[in-house]
UniProtKB/TrEMBL annotation, chain A:
Lineage: Bacteria, Bacillati, Bacillota, Bacilli, Bacillales
Organism annotation: Halobacillus campisalis
InterPro entries noted in UniProt: CO_DH_flav_C (IPR005107), CO_DH_flav_C_dom_sf (IPR036683), Diverse_Substr_Oxidored (IPR051312), FAD-bd_PCMH (IPR016166), FAD-bd_PCMH-like_sf (IPR036318), FAD-bd_PCMH_sub2 (IPR016169), Mopterin_DH_FAD-bd (IPR002346)
SUPFAM superfamilies, alphabetized: CO dehydrogenase flavoprotein C-terminal domain-like, FAD-binding/transporter-associated domain-like
Alphabetical UniProt keywords: FAD, Flavoprotein, Oxidoreductase
Protein name, entry field: FAD binding domain-containing protein
Residue stretches making up the FAD-binding PCMH-type domain: 15-190
Amino acid sequence: MVNEHEPLMSGKPPTLPVPTKVWRPSDLSEAWEVKRQYGTEARYITGGTLIQLQREQGTPLAKHLISLDKINVLEGFDHLEDEGQFKLRIGALTTLSDCHRNVFIEEYWPILAEAIRHVASPAVRNRATIGGNVCYQVGDVIPALMVLEAEAVSFDGTTYLSNDIATYIQLINGEDHPILASISLPEPPVSAQVLSFFKKVGRREAFIPSIVTVACQGCINESGEVEYIRLAAGGGTASPKRLYECERFVQNKVLIEEDLGRLYEMVLQEYVPASDPFTTADYRKTVAANVIVSEFEKLIQ
Amino acid sequence: MQQMKASEKRNRKRPDGPDKVTGRLNYLTDLHFPNMLYGKIKRSAYPHARILSIYTEEAEQLPGVRAVVTFKDVPGLNAFGIVTPDQPVLCEDTVRYVGDAVAAVAADTKEIAEHACSLIAVEYDPLPVVDDPAKALDAGTPQLHPDGNLLHKAHFYKGDVDDAFYKCTEIIEETYQVPRQMHTYMETEGGVIVPEPDGTLTVYVGTQHGYKDRFQLSRILNLQEEKIRIVSSPMGGSFGGKDELNIQPYGALLALASGRPVKIHQTRQESVISGLKRHPMRITMKTGVAADGKIIAHRVDILADTGAYSTLGPAILEFAVEHSTGPYVIPNVKTEGVSVFTNNGVAGEFRGFGGNQVTFALEGQMDRLADRLDVDPLEFRRLNLRKRDEIGPIGQRIAPTDGAYQVLQSIKDHRQLKIKEENEMPDKWKVRGIGTAITMHGGGLGYGRLDPAGGRLCLKENGKIEAAFGFEEAGQGILGVIETIVTEELGCSVSDLSVVIGDTSLVPSSGSTTASRGTSMVWHALQKMNKPFRKLLIEKGEALTGVEAHRLQTGKIGLFVTADDGEEIPIITYEELAQQSTEEEMTISTNFDFPTTPDPIDSGHFLYTFGAVLAQVEVDLLTGKVKVIDLDQAIAAGPVVNYLGYKGQIEGGGVMSLGYTLLEDALMSEGEYMTQNLDAYLIPGIGDVPFTMKVEAIETLQEDDSYGPRGVGEIGSVAVAPAIAKAIQEAVGYWVRSLPVSSEEVLAEVSKRRVNPWTKAMQ
């Protein structure tokens, strides 16, 4: 015998739930204070596309939403020079559409532009922010940012922290996690040949969560050696991860055909996806391995 | 019958098009009334349970709540169902699926209504869930209805299959599984129900059959049919999904209880949970050929999962049985179908009506046999194809037709051209394949079923010729069809015309807008009304002008005579005719039935359409993903009434079935939907659809055919899945048995063939 919920015999007249309160702080310190005040009852919001999706899926809206939309410094692009290296800083509130239109991203970090192109639909990209996609923890841009060695700059109430993307994503799991302020992209290394790709596989062509997402940024020197390599994979509910073992395997190698079989096996071992009612983990592994190895095969041909 | 061609003239832009694409059009779910309340339906928390108590007091006390109804508040029959009313409007003691309604609330806002629903406490005793149709009839399985879990059995026997299989040189036996497809209309179920001051009720809710809704609501509300007015068009899509009642009873009960207009518009999730789906079926076919390549034995077993309630389950099963031999002549056939109750949602009417499921299996058999015999699959089909005067698939006489041969030949020619096209693959990890399939599909409801149609023409006081039909606009383009047929038959122009549909207070009963019958029935109605209506106008014209009736013709703006030099001289306008006439409005109406076979064979159809599909796919060898790059169809359905509408139906049906083949399945686990919204239940996007699709309309009918244009609402959706399945087999050698096609299975098959060198390392 099951009661759908406890009989409401409290005697008090029923009332409507208190509607969500939306806070619009004007700087990060204020945002931080509001969050500290309401703890787990509060949630940050920017474009709101993910929160809306989760709401449709049955997650109740938080009692307090802290909208960061009035904090202007969190939006837009800055060019920085760091020890002679060119860097692009992207404000966390910059929309995915604006990132996609940015000429520098297109020229220097094309796989990021490619990753953004695969996020949801144009209407969603017009509202969704790059910071929101990172804080989603399984966003499509994360593997691309990982292999581009992007830096997440966040605010912990007193100071600004700088972390790699993977570390920042872990920080989000904690209570009172720092607020993502910006993402910095370092100039990617160049050599004789660049090996760079981003692939997303979904159950449909567009507007679809990924089954498998892989990203790679690397370069090959004049003698055909893999001089630099960053490889990451994500997809489904699994947080994207760098494939360090695979990277080590190809690093400093002139790849030959026999290596491809070994690399294939290593991807199968290192990439740990999850199953869902539509797709098994085994399928995801095979696809990730196929996609990655087919790209490396091009180096041999 | 005059020869009609898909000419420029018959390429009408639909009159409702601009308002739809600009978003200006008001659907019934957009309506607002003063003092309107919002209704919400509380649905079951379990797929199968006994209800022990329903406690509504808390909800009733919530400020802003104006009415709460449960089973106790149903004044008439607490059940609905087009044929057998076995679905409770509001459940009293048992719930049989997650969409079963337990209570409904009307409140000042949607939010209050929603919260009030959460305050209704229902005490359940959960029962074991019947979720496997294969076990539904087993002893020990919980019985969902007083008569058990069997909804319906249907069969067709001809010759002696067991004996014939002994004579076969090749036999293919295969089991096919097809999914639970959702209609996914853009406009979910909804509308406004208004209690009028005179005690009548106006129901502004989209439906495919206004008069049937009126009948069913009358039975539920214990209110005379004449006191219920159904306004039912336009709809943002239906595809069979809105023929049965959906939210109307709840809106009506709440409107009567509160005395105020009540709007209900289901969210997508509510629609998924409560709405009908296409019947999932498991179909086993054993098909054998003799040495001459002719099929001589065909054994078919169909198991349909009808879910919790009947609705049109029996008719759909019978349709599947009838179409299980398709356009082929087979001397020995044994087809047995069974449709069973489970706690898996409710399956019902859906474009194709059981034909799509069984055609996937049948055409799969044809391709497998052709492959086994090593003959061209279309040539194999041609060898077994029905001839012009052959009797219908279940032994009934049908309107003579060459459609099967015509579409087969057309798609064969098209395939030749496709094969010759340059096919250089830019990507070494992609391979292509072409597949074809054909089908025949019955229109109308079939022998032994009430299938009335009708229409009315009237010269109104304002001089407009009113054409009134009980058909509904569900996006299919019925308005363009009516405009074309009426203006052509009467010679008048569109501006002389006023088309009225979708309101039981204004239109005659025309039967349901279903079974590809709309276009056909409008044409038949005009054949019957055209002459008497023209005569009526002309006689009136003669009386008013003195011009002899035999010289007068109906034309644009009014009546005219043709002078000896061919010049058309206007005599009197329709407006003048209406205004100068002292009598009542000039009206002609007609009632008739959809043409049926003269043979008393239950459910047998008489008018058939034919379709042939060519699909080309590109299979990604790295992911197993299938992309359809060509989806072209040849259709034989008589003269085209409106080419744009025709093409839209075929392309739209094609894309809907592309989704059925590759993406769509309302997945359930233990009676609960795993796909509760469009983020998990996937329909094709524009990126999944071929850039262009060709539609070849074969318009010729037999010389003595007097039945005119057939409807094409379904035919474009029927044979798509098997064509895509065959194309996949051509590309990678994998025979698809289950829909939607699993990329995982395709990839596993590709991997087995070790097309990529690196997987060798795995061996």
